[in-house]
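Bench notes, afternoon.
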Amino acid sequence: MAELNLVEAVNAALACEMSRDESVLLLGEDIGLNGGVFRATSGLQARFGRERVIDTPLAEGGIAGVAVGMAAMGLKPVAEIQFTGFIYPTLDQMINHASRLRNRTRGRLTCPMVLRSPYGAGIHAPEHHSESPEALFAHVPGLRVVIPSTPARAYGLLLAAMRDPDPVVFLEPTRLYRLFKQDVVDDGEALPLDTCFLSREGADVTIVAWGAMVREANAAADVLEEQGIDAEIIDVATIKPFDAETILRSVERTGRCVIVHEAARTAGFGAEIAAEIAERALYSLQAPVKRVAGYDVVIPLYRLERQFIPGVDRIVAAVREVMEGS
């Protein structure tokens, strides 16, 4: 067991799986010699060689396309995109090829690739470095979308993503990379995909979050506890396909739900969760579902960035609103 931050946990998972499975290889811009822009792949080229940790040209569409071809031929590529703002050139390959390969070949070929990228705001990067496009990828049939919230979950979920026979988009909250450390057992044990994690038990209200927002939700729950409100926190973790049953069971018990995400509010994935609750647990609700999200604007630079990101005060206010609405 070691105390690792999230970026160290990603590195450990990559090293573990590359040691276990020789078909796993890495590719991306500056990931080899320099160890990646956030050093997630630091030391891996020296350990595994240039044929398995490949520095690529600055061409995100090409990175994704090469990864699709490698995956179709039996390799297990893990492609890194430096920031999610640069991920959009990969959409052609991810939507038209990676996500469709199993269906197109009627199961004769699969696409066991992982597309990794730092994700979200909070480090004062330019606006196109700080976006949260999870709902865009979640809308594509055939893609799995995973977002860890802690170092231990990053380690276990990335192992599971690399072992999955179909393409996984793995978004790593940039703000959490070095924010805190956690005990991580580097034992090669994967965590399950397609399931939510119960981050905190509670009886009065369900708060649903993912990525960096899980930490904000837990901080809000501490404040709410002082006010006599017992909040349950659910970490969605796998956005697509998402584990509706865990969320529904919690909402049926608490009768109230607040959904928190960093992405812009309109067409954010929180709307899908709210719709699922409305369709399947409406009569359990004691108050309308509330969303706390980013605003429908381009992420403002530097001084206003923290105002864009949902924080403890906004989450607490939303919970108090659903409590008073009962």
